[in-house]
Amino acid sequence: MTDDMTNKTSRREFLGKTSAVVAGGIAAGQTDSTDVAASPATDESKFQPEAFWKERMTPPDDGKMLGWLVDTRRCFGCHACEVSCKSENDVPLGKFIRQTIYKDVGEYPKVARVFLPMACQHCEDAPCIKACPCGALHKEVGGTVAVDYNVCSGHGTCAEVCPYGAIYLDPVAKQAVKCHNCYHRLEHDMEPACVPTCPSEALYFGDLNDPESKISVAKAELEESEGLTQLRPEKGTKPRAWFAGNAPVEVEERVPREGESYSPDAYNIYNWKQADAATDDG
Predict the structure, then answer these.
(1) CB 102 within 8 A of CB 116
(2) For 107-152, how does the pLDDT look when each residue is reduced to its tens digit (9 = 90+)?
(3) Structure pTM?
(4) Cα separation of 265 and 239, whole Å?
(5) What CATH code would you report for 7-64+76-192+249-262?
(6) CB atoms within 10 A of CB 172
(7) Three-class secondary structure of residue 8 per DSSP
(8) Are 169 and 177 in contact (CB under 8 A)?
(9) Residue 205 and residue 183 in contact, taking contact as beta carbons nearer than 8 Å
């Protein structure tokens, strides 16, 4: 594996080259054949032999440790991060690389809606890399978990083992798609598209090995004052994302699991009045 990302084909470039060929198969790509059946827990029997994935699990020796910090107390559910992500990465309608999941909490008349912006956790011990049968999943700069679109064949096993539902299969290219920290922007010293788009500055991204980086400073301050949590640490994947606020605890049950992915049903109008939100003044 090389750390020269300029030699890799990005998803945007791949779709540009193949759109003319696969245009006739779009209808077929909208069938259930692209969906991954849900499974209750990570199935290690789906992992490939260690010799096959060990090298790809090791990031380039660049001295960086890229990670995420989400201050859910600041998020007010505008979904700007999702929109910018879709625009930046050509994400089709009905599919999501990141999604803000919400839940109504409290008891009438004191109720509130909490929001949890979610995306790939870029795990240090990433099960998707272990399960990928074609060797497409690998570590990029700073430990970013990325997909090599010159190699991915769309098996979908990566989605079957992701504990956070952060991977979907593209209905056109028939390939796995996930957050890759906008590494095409990192090459030009730019942040992932979602970060500067967030109007409430709830998203932090950067090098955790740099004590002076914005994320390192914020993480240290919040750990001392508020405390930080990680999502589903019991999975043992060592996620590179931390959360401030109570949203992770409140919303965790609604975050997709193994074999699932972000769904447009999260925004269905019939979900606006939720059964578990005590908003009825009865």
Answers:
(1) yes
(2) 989 999 999 999 999 999 999 999 999 999 999 999 999 999 999 9
(3) 0.82
(4) 26
(5) 3.30.70.20
(6) 19
(7) coil
(8) yes
(9) no
